[in-house]
């Protein structure tokens, strides 16, 4: 942003002071002592991993707490109005005209029983109260024009399920800007959207913020996206702000070890880096320690960190961090270590896909897909939603059988139906699912889940099986004592590691990973990916790694394949394709990726 | 690049199979009718066949079972002929069916008059009862459900939910005798305990005799409407879109009636259909309790007197009602759900 | 079965007591029951049910004749010799008839429930797992059966064939199987669509084993809820049929028959009707509410609501609650 000056003299548009949110019944704090301000037409990025309290803070800005929560203390001032002092009609009036909200998932944030046209005009209808002006239809048309959607009858009469996710999110954004609020709160509005759509949405938000002098609070777990859009960044951990600074200062020199850790864990398209995750998990509300909440996961922690809670202290101009032992600004810049790439041909079997076509019903999803994965190497398959990448994975694994074309693994033709494959083939090829919450049987303990495939592939005594379970759990760094726990007692990252263990226990040769980190937090994703690469190296596994995140591919795969609409558009060594893309689609994909480097551009 | 991507197959929750199917078949309404109407006809035919077969599965012979062991051979023979028992199974079935399709429904064994004379007048009485009950229980259920959902876990919600839970579990004839005890013979003496009227009269000539049977059936059916509307409203009110509407500044009334209620329509229609279906069978017991001159009582007495032609006629009539109502309900549910009505 | 120690709170004793297929499944069923008993509603409804069951099964042990003449018909309890609850239409003791009149009904209801849930669950699970033709055949079949007015059809059969107990059980059980099939079909579908079932299928595990080890254990809660609901509705249906004259034959006491035959004397001695009606009401409410408590305790409030509604909305389709 170039035309808006950051002036300390101006009163901030949004001023949050000492905000605290508690659980309504128990009074357990969920958010504590959150203070920040946002200047006019500025975008504040509110960053945190799941459970950090960022969404709770975001909703508090509208004077709203979800069922079971209560805003207990603090003040929120938006353009001179104290939001938390409002109630009844005044609060309703403020919502929409003073501060507006864009939900995370537009598909569930729009009412399925009402047309888009009605929902677009609703805020105006609520807040106009007889105020005359342009007819509603004209104003709706103008709104749609601002988010670059055609104001056709057809669109206005559509229901939410009839438009794409990107279109729905544009409608949601248009709705938020309808009554010209002073502040817009966006709760992860691009999660689940493709990078190209995401870029368009981010541009739209930025354009509207400037054009109408609207400030924004942008909540996200996605650091590169925040780098792309935010002027200032506030990082939350366990219900508190741990660091707050202008975006370039955060992305160029984070001071809090947690922020620095997040940056090291986030994959970026610019570099092939070893991802460094953060072991452990954040404390849940009610279990917050007396000292620093991050201390038990922090390498720099000392006795003082455990004993007392660090205050939010200045670390430089406009830079606050809650840490007794802040990281050196220079040192926090991501370390670029080139990952060890497994030497090809170390493994046993090559995967040869020589013209695979697949269908769902009458619809052809994959068209003549051809590629080869060298023994012991990893192929990253990237594509946007609808590209057929998951279908491809499922075809190889035998989960989807409506396909044809010669596919060989280790010089053996694979049958489309898993049931018709030989047991040996079924053992050699293992598949890891995207969602670790659905891929483990909730009625079986972790140990039984991991042990389950052994019962069908090997004739072992139960003692031998248990020994193998302990062994493989150790290999994924989970500890054999986890075997007796139930899946519901585990975090998402732990569950995904259990799923990896279950795949590894039968000594597979080809591992198919379908978006296995997309449901995980960044710090956990890094751990899983690093571990997977280590395992691949040790065992000489051949691997197919499906992802929508091009950046992740850099950290795990030797080769990359780009899918678009069921067709291969480009394939080759990762380094080469990502630095010198040839196909227009690949170029676009790479250009649309959010990058840390853009943090400077944004401000 | 177009900014608008087609929505992900995976993100849509289900694989592409349903969508591919939708692409092939016609409009959802036509597809529903194409499916359900033949299936419905099949159901009615099946009921007819079973109804006829029921007279043939006896170890002995239906005619002697009906007339008892002291019947004369002549009487047995004429009854056998009347029921079509004198023919072999398949031709008997076919001729019985043929009579039915051509409107010859047979002669009542009890009155010796046409079956239609016994059944049709009573059909009107039952229809009045069913319609009143459906209307009242829908109004009570919807209003109560909306109120309960609006103040979830409040005093009204908890007490109404408990009452609904209890009432929905009670056997209808038990409710009937309780109602008689309270309003007629035990505590109060407000309404007649039985609804007997002269055979040539219709029930609306003496509407006071409608009250207790209707009350009984309302107590049994309203809880389903209440629980479904409450649950659907709560689901809608706790949804993301309700949160978004609330954060747009929508008032409680707007939230309830504009945002939540349209999403509760389909479930409510479904329960209305189910309630009507239930009523068609439930009247047998309740009309017996009150001696209400409807089709249910006719059925019950036909069972007592083993008046087979009347039984067969009522059973087939009810089956047609069931099938039609099922299709109508599904059609209305389809029409009140944009997600299902309008193709992507 | 595996020899892994059972996790968390179970004591080995409780698991061993139930003779089910394997310790794991009985464990799940007990946990589901235990959760329901942990709620106030669950405890009250279980108490009600047990009270009525005790009266039904222990009542016949109480000395006293249900068929002997005690006092003039419809005598008040105040009339000497009429007993605690007065006399019925034939001058027999209402108290003894009530004590003797529940056992038969209850046994029939249990058997009908087993038939309903057993056949319904098999149809539902198989239809959900075997996609395509089998699924269509089974579920469309369920639709057709649901379009038949069951109470009415049961009446037709019973009036022609006679009030045979096996026919009563079959009619009541099979008429409810479609409801269970629908509920379990829905629940099983959401389980079979889960990745962990697909994962197992890819290993080439036989279908029977997948259903038994991975699908069924995840259906414990809906199955328990169904058992409770079907028992409740079987009681209601069988009582309704006996009210219409298909209960135990005349000299034998039967709660449903009692309500019918003593109606005419309600003004003189209401207990002849109220006592059996009250017991039937308590039993139906107790079992139904316990099913509700199971659903709530094990699925969380909102999802429990759905499960109960899906199941509760079912029985009305048969037009013979």
From TrEMBL, chain A:
Membrane topology note: Peripheral membrane protein
SMART domains: AAA
SUPFAM superfamilies attached to this UniProt entry: P-loop containing nucleoside triphosphate hydrolases (SSF52540)
Listed GO biological process terms: peptide transport
GO CC, alphabetical: plasma membrane
Main localization (coarse): membrane
Protein name, as recorded: ABC transporter ATP-binding protein
TrEMBL record, chain C:
Top-rank taxon: Bacteria
Biological process according to GO: transmembrane transport
Region forming the signal peptide: none
Transmembrane segments: 44-62, 105-129, 231-248, 268-286
InterPro entries: BP-dependent_transpt_permease (IPR050366), MetI-like (IPR000515), MetI-like_sf (IPR035906)
Family statement drawn from the similarity comment of this UniProt entry: Belongs to the binding-protein-dependent transport system permease family.
Name of this chain's protein: ABC transporter permease
Organism: Herbiconiux oxytropis
């Amino acid at each position: 942003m170039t035309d808006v000056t950051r002036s300390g003299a101006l009163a901030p548009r949004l001023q949050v002071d000492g905000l605290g949110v508690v659980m309504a019944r128990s009074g357990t704090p969920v958010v504590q002592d959150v203070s920040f301000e946002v200047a006019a037409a500025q975008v504040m990025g509110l960053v945190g991993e799941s459970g950090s309290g960022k969404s709770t803070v975001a909703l508090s800005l509208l004077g709203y707490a979800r069922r079971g929560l209560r805003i207990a203390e603090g003040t929120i001032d938006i353009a001179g109005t104290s939001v938390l002092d409002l109630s009844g009609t005044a609060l309703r009036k403020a919502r929409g005209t003073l501060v507006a909200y864009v939900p995370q998932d537009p598909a569930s944030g729009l009412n399925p029983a009402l047309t888009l046209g009605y929902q677009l005009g609703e805020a105006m209808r609520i807040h106009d109260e007889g105020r005359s002006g342009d007819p509603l239809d004209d104003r709706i048309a103008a709104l749609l024009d601002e988010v670059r959607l055609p104001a056709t009858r057809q669109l206005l009469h559509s229901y939410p399920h009839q438009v794409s996710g990107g279109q729905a999110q544009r409608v949601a954004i248009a709705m938020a800007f309808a009554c010209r609020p002073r502040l817009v709160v966006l709760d992860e509005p691009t999660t689940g959207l493709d990078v190209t759509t995401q870029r368009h949405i981010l541009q739209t938000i930025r354009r509207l913020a400037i054009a109408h002098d609207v400030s924004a609070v942008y909540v996200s777990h996605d650091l590169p996206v925040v780098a792309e859009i935010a002027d200032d960044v506030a990082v939350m951990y366990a219900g508190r702000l741990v660091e707050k600074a202008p975006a370039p200062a955060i992305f160029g020199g984070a001071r809090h070890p947690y922020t620095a850790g997040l940056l090291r864990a986030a994959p970026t398209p610019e570099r092939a880096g070893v991802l460094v995750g953060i072991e452990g998990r954040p404390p849940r509300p009610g279990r917050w320690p007396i000292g620093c909440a991050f201390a038990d996961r922090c390498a720099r922690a000392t006795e003082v960190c455990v004993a007392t809670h660090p205050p939010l202290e200045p670390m430089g101009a406009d830079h606050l961090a809650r840490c007794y032992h802040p990281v050196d600004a220079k040192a926090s810049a991501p370390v670029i270590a080139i990952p060890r790439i497994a030497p090809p041909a170390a493994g046993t079997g090559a995967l040869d896909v020589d013209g695979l076509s697949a269908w769902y019903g009458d619809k052809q999803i994959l068209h003549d897909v051809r590629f080869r994965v060298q023994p012991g190497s990893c192929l990253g398959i990237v594509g946007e939603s609808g590209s057929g990448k998951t279908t491809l994975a499922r075809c190889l694994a035998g989960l989807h059988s409506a396909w044809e074309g010669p596919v060989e693994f280790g010089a053996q033709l694979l049958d489309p139906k898993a049931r018709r494959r030989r047991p040996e083939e079924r053992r050699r090829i293992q598949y890891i699912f995207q969602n670790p919450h659905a891929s483990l049987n909730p009625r079986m303990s972790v140990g039984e889940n991991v042990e389950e495939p052994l019962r069908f592939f090997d004739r072992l005594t139960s003692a031998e099986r248990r020994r193998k379970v302990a062994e493989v759990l150790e290999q994924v760094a989970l500890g054999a004592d986890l075997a007796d726990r139930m899946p519901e007692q585990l975090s998402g990252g732990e569950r995904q590691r259990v799923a990896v263990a279950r795949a590894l226990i039968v000594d597979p040769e080809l591992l198919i990973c379908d978006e296995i980190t997309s449901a995980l937090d960044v710090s956990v994703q890094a751990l899983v990916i690093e571990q997977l690469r280590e395992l691949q190296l040790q065992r000489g596994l051949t691997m197919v790694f499906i992802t929508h995140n091009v950046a992740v591919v850099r950290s795990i795969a030797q080769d990359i394949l780009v899918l678009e609409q069921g067709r291969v558009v480009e394939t080759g060594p990762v380094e080469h394709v990502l630095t010198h893309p040839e196909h227009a689609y690949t170029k676009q994909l790479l250009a649309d990726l959010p990058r840390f480097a853009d943090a400077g551009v944004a401000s | 690049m177009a900014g608008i991507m087609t929505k992900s197959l995976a993100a849509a929750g289900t694989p592409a199979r349903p969508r591919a199917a939708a692409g092939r078949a016609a409009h959802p309404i036509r597809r529903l009718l194409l499916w359900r109407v033949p299936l419905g006809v099949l159901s009615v035919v099946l009921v007819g066949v079973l109804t006829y077969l029921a007279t043939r599965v006896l170890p002995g012979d239906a005619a002697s079972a009906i007339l008892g062991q002291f019947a004369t051979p002549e009487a047995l023979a004429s009854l056998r002929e009347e029921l079509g028992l004198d023919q072999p199974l398949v031709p008997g079935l076919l001729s019985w069916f043929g009579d039915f399709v051509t409107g010859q429904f047979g002669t009542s064994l009890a009155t010796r008059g046409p079956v239609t004379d016994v059944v049709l007048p009573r059909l009107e009485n039952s229809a009045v009862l069913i319609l009143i009950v459906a209307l009242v229980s829908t109004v009570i259920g919807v209003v109560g459900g909306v109120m309960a959902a609006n103040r979830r876990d409040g005093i009204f919600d908890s007490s109404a939910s408990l009452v609904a839970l209890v009432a929905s579990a009670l056997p209808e004839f038990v409710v009937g005798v309780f109602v008689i005890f309270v309003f007629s013979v035990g505590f109060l003496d407000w309404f007649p305990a039985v609804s007997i009227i002269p055979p040539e009269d219709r029930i609306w000539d003496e509407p006071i005799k409608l009250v207790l049977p209707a009350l009984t059936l309302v107590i049994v059916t309203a809880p389903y409407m209440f629980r479904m509307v409450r649950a659907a409203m709560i689901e809608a009110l706790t949804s993301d879109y309700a949160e978004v509407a609330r954060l747009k500044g929508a008032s409680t009334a707007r939230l309830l009636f504009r945002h939540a209620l349209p999403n509760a329509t389909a479930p409510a229609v479904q329960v209305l259909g189910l309630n009507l279906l239930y009523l068609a069978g439930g009247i047998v017991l309740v009309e017996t309790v009150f001696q209400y001159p409807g089709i249910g009582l006719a059925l019950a007495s036909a069972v007592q007197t083993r008046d087979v032609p009347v039984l067969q006629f009522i059973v087939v009539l009810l089956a047609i009602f069931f099938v039609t109502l099922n299709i109508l309900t599904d059609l209305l549910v389809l029409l009140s759900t944009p997600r299902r009505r309008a193709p992507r | 079965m595996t020899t892994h120690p059972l996790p968390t709170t179970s004591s080995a004793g409780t698991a061993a007591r139930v003779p089910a297929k394997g310790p794991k499944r009985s464990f799940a069923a007990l946990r589901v029951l235990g959760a329901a008993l942990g709620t106030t509603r669950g405890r009250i409804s279980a108490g009600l049910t047990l009270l009525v069951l005790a009266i039904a099964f222990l009542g016949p042990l109480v000395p006293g004749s249900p068929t002997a003449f005690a006092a003039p018909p419809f005598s008040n309890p105040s009339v000497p010799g009429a007993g605690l609850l007065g006399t019925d239409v034939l001058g027999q003791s209402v108290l003894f008839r009530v004590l003797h009149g529940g056992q038969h009904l209850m046994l029939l209801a249990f058997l009908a429930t087993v038939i309903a849930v057993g056949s319904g669950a098999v149809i539902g699970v198989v239809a959900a797992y075997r996609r395509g033709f089998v699924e269509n055949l089974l579920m469309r079949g369920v639709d057709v059966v649901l379009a038949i007015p069951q109470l009415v059809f049961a009446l037709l059969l019973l009036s022609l064939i006679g009030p045979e107990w096996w026919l009563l059980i079959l009619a009541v059980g099979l008429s409810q199987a479609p409801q269970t099939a629908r509920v379990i079909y829905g629940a099983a579908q959401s389980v079979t669509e889960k990745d962990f079932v697909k994962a197992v299928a890819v290993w080439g595990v036989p279908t029977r084993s997948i259903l038994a080890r991975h699908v069924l254990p995840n259906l414990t809660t809906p199955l328990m809820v169904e058992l409770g609901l079907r028992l409740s509705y079987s009681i209601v249906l069988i009582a309704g049929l006996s009210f219409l004259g298909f209960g135990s034959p005349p000299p034998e006491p039967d709660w449903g028959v009692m309500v019918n035959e003593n109606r005419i004397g309600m003004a003189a001695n209401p207990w002849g009707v109220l006592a059996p009606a009250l017991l039937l009401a308590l039993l139906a409410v107790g079992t139904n509410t316990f099913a509700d408590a199971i659903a709530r305790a094990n699925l969380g409030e909102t999802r429990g609501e759905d499960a109960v509604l899906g199941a509760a909305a079912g029985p009305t389709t048969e037009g013979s609650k």
